[in-house]
Automatic annotation (TrEMBL), chain A:
Belongs to the phosphatase 2A regulatory subunit B family. It comes from the Eukaryota. Keywords: Repeat, WD repeat. One of its GO terms (molecular function) is protein phosphatase regulator activity. The keyword DNA damage does not apply. GO terms for cellular component: protein phosphatase type 2A complex. SUPFAM superfamilies: WD40 repeat-like (SSF50978). The keyword Transcription regulation does not apply. SMART domains: WD40 (SM00320). InterPro entries: PP2A_PR55, PP2A_PR55_CS, WD40/YVTN_repeat-like_dom_sf, WD40_repeat_dom_sf, WD40_rpt. It comes from Mandrillus leucophaeus (Drill). This is Serine/threonine-protein phosphatase 2A 55 kDa regulatory subunit B.
Automatic annotation (TrEMBL), chain B:
Coiled coil: none annotated. This is SERTA domain containing 1. Residues 38-85 form the SERTA domain. It holds the Pfam family SERTA. Transmembrane segments: none annotated. One of its GO terms (cellular component) is sarcoplasm.
Length: 440, 236
């Protein structure tokens, strides 16, 4: 496994107080968006590599910051709606502007990000400050010219998709048709058109007629990257359902059900909780799905429903601690997972600010840490190891000294290069592979 | 002599097992005792789960995923605890339930009732509610025993959280109550002095009219001036 270096921008901290709640690269990797608990979105832009300054090889600097969501109060239910950004998804770029969708528990917003680096000067009727000129002083006509100015990034809300969800939105996903997107809450999935805000189609509804029968909720969902009619959603019972929108208007009946039978030797009272899928991601190829449950990441082949084709243990040493983790609610933590650009390496976060990478080809894995101490700029990240008793090496961490408050829930991988973004509570780390920045 | 020694040993082991489980979960630093979980959960794990459930239900807007997972886990724990009592492996023994079974069953009904009430209320607010469903006893008849007390407890929980239920007035409040609770042991003639009104015994389908005595009793219970009395089970 190649070593990764930390770039200076790895210590970029938007605002100390706010916990980062989502991280997302855009389709080219030029932009990186983060959302936080305070409803703020910060966008980083990669500086173009410059021959003159070889050290600043494509680092990420703050590009724009804006307040996406504000706390709201639902008067009908006497409830406060959190402004925390649950998910950000970029739209594919279709013109000079960038667009992204951001969502909190209830409302999705479409933001347009534009640049302004020129302004017109030389108006005939207005002076430099915009005041009307005294017409008697105007003796000749001039054509206003565009003069360069300091780059100004303007962000404006273009659409607000409200009142579509009774329960908490956990996912949004833009369709490959670039016209529609879906939003999923605990019990329902809606299909929206990007230009229409006053209505949406309900395409999945798992709410039982009698709420007493509720035993399962939707935990994540995503559109297929190439087939605009296919999407997948995961459940709290560990199953995945692939649905085809051509089959019916309401996709309650799945086309394929992916579920691994429970391992009888590992059965416990917590079996269901740890099987709950917290994230599902299609591979870039569209042929596989990656899922994350509490202890493992699994790769599924779309052609095989019976079981995953690969299972990787993220932190199996926690299996004997499930009771304590149930007691302190850590067992309910929702970790995300990510593919690299070539679908050969998968990544996910863990506790103690550790994150894990698994190489699907070599079957090798590595544990790395995202912390200020271990991430001096340009430093090579040192692999970490958790020891479970038995032989202990010098820098090993014992299971009992893991810090469960330091959890890496949100990670993202650049779509083409070996650059990763790791959110560790309120710090954002960006690591990149110095040796070889091409995909392998 | 030999057989006595053996018997004692087995009892000791049985006593030790729950302690080991308790110690195990109380001390996170304790190395893994065993890979396989104990076949019977300790009551502390059960209590912990009930605590979590109540905490979750008391949120103004409960995390549905957390709630559902806790309830399902609790059901699993209960399922493992109930058959541990010396009962034949028949799914629903309504004839002679043990005391433990009563308590567990009442808790289970409480869970179902609590969760059902809250989720029903969520559905009510959403505007998609159907006619108010009775808090049905879904399981075997034996499980509805003691369902009255927890149902009222559930209504208690709902009170402060949502104004809607109480806004309907007393009529709306009682509309949601499963009338079968008047048919179960708590109100049956067998339990002294508690039977309030003209019930026709268990199994009567239509809702009996509430008379004033019943209303008064119910209101007292809701308000908390009257403590709810558990019927003495047959096993005691």
């Amino acid at each position: 496994m190649r070593a990764l270096t930390a770039t200076p921008s790895c210590l970029a901290v938007p605002l100390p107080a706010d916990i980062i709640s989502t991280v997302e690269f855009n389709h080219t990797g030029e932009l990186l968006a983060t959302g936080d608990k305070g409803g703020r979105v910060v966008i980083f832009q990669r500086e173009p590599e410059s021959k003159n300054a070889p050290h600043s090889q494509g680092e990420y600097d703050v590009y724009s910051t804006f307040q996406s969501h504000e706390p709201e109060f639902d008067y009908l239910k006497s409830l406060e709606i959190e402004e925390k950004i649950n998910k950000i998804k970029w739209l594919p770029q279709q013109n000079a502007a960038h667009s992204l969708l951001s969502t909190n528990d209830k409302t999705i917003k479409l933001w347009k990000i534009t640049e302004r680096d020129k302004r017109p000067e030389g108006y005939n009727l207005k002076d430099e400050e915009g005041k009307l000129k005294d017409l008697s002083t105007v003796t000749s006509l001039q054509v206003p010219v565009l003069k360069p100015m300091d780059l100004m990034v303007e962000v404006s809300p273009r659409r607000i998709f409200a009142n579509g969800h009774t329960y908490h939105i956990n996912s949004i996903s833009v369709n490959s048709d670039c016209e529609t997107y879906m939003s999923a809450d605990d019990l329902r999935i809606n299909l929206w058109h990007l230009a229409i805000t006053d209505r949406s189609f309900n395409i999945v509804d798992i709410k039982p007629a009698n709420m007493e029968d509720l035993t399962e909720v939707i935990t994540a969902s995503e559109f297929h990257p190439h087939h605009c009619n296919l999407f997948v959603y995961s459940s709290s019972k560990g199953s995945l359902r692939l649905c085809d929108m051509r089959a019916a208007a309401l996709c309650d009946k799945h086309s394929k059900l992916f579920e691994e039978p429970e391992d009888p030797s590992n059965r416990s009272f917590f079996s269901e909780i740890i099987s709950s899928v917290s994230d599902v991601k299609f591979s870039h190829s569209g042929r596989y799905m990656l899922t994350r449950d509490y202890l493992t990441v699994k790769v599924w082949d779309l052609n095989m429903e019976a079981r995953p084709i690969e299972t990787y243990q993220v932190h199996d040493y926690l299996r004997s601690k499930l009771c304590s983790l149930y007691e302190n609610d850590c067992i309910f933590d929702k970790f995300e997972c990510a593919w690299n650009g070539s679908d050969s390496v998968i990544m996910t976060g863990a506790y103690n600010n550790f994150f894990r990478m698994f190489d699907r080809n070599t079957k090798r894995d590595v544990t790395l840490e995202a912390s200020r101490e271990s991430s001096k700029p340009r430093a090579v990240l040192k692999p970490r190891r958790v020891c479970v008793g038995g032989k202990r090496r010098r820098d090993d961490i014992s299971v009992d000294s893991l810090d469960f408050t330091k959890k890496i829930l949100h990670t993202a991988w650049h779509p083409a290069e070996n650059i990763i973004a790791i959110a560790a509570t309120n710090n954002l780390y960006i690591f990149q592979d110095k040796v070889n920045s091409d995909m392998h | 002599m030999l057989s006595k020694g053996l018997k004692r040993k087995r009892e000791e082991e049985e006593e030790k097992e729950p302690l080991a489980v308790d110690a195990w979960w109380l001390d996170p630093g304790h190395a893994s005792v065993a890979q396989a979980p104990p076949a019977v959960a300790s009551s502390s794990l059960f209590d912990l789960s009930v605590l979590k459930l109540h905490h979750s239900l008391q949120q103004s807007e409960p995390n549905l995923r957390h709630l559902v997972l806790v309830v399902n886990t609790l059901r699993r724990i209960q399922a493992s605890m109930a058959p541990a009592a010396a009962l034949p492996p028949v799914p629903s023994p309504p004839a002679a339930p043990s005391v433990a079974d009563n308590l567990l069953a009442s808790s289970d009904a409480a869970l179902s009732a609590s969760m059902a009430s809250l989720l029903e209320d969520l559905s009510h607010i959403e505007g998609l509610s159907q006619a108010p469903q009775p808090l049905a006893d879904e399981g075997p008849p034996g499980r509805s025993i003691g369902g009255a007390a927890p149902s009222l407890g559930a209504l208690d929980l709902l009170g402060p959280a949502t104004g809607c239920l109480l806004d309907d007035g007393l009529e709306g409040l009682f509309e949601d109550i499963d009338t079968s609770m008047y048919d179960n042991e708590l109100w049956a003639p067998a339990s002294e002095g508690l039977k309030p009104g003209p019930e026709d015994g268990p199994g009567k389908e239509e809702a009996p009219e509430l008379d004033e005595a019943e209303l008064d009793y119910l209101m007292d219970v809701l308000v908390g001036t009257q403590a709810l009395e558990r019927p003495p089970g047959p096993g005691r």
